[in-house]
Amino acid sequence: MAEHTNHRHTQRCRSAADILDSTPGLSYRQLDWWTTRGYIHAIGTNRPGHGIYRCWDTDEAAVIERAARLTGFGVTASRAIQAARDPDNRLGALLEGSTA
Fold it and tell me: Which parts of the chain register pLDDT below 70?
């Protein structure tokens, strides 16, 4: 019998609950909207809907956490995610100065 690795149980896969627990101010609705709009990328599927299990790799989870902090400063979601992906972006100064 071939071994099957379920993506839900890998160290590189972070669930919505895990991301929401570690990201103050981020709601499930925001996370879902960012994913269905294609701003962030879940492993396996970006499909909307109830009962769809999604997880994000650790690099994407870091982008989500940085973007959520930027939206807390009033930056739009699309710009926040773009800045969170680019360490040289001038909005990164907001993250360096925050303690969240």
Answer: 1-11, 45-51, 92-100
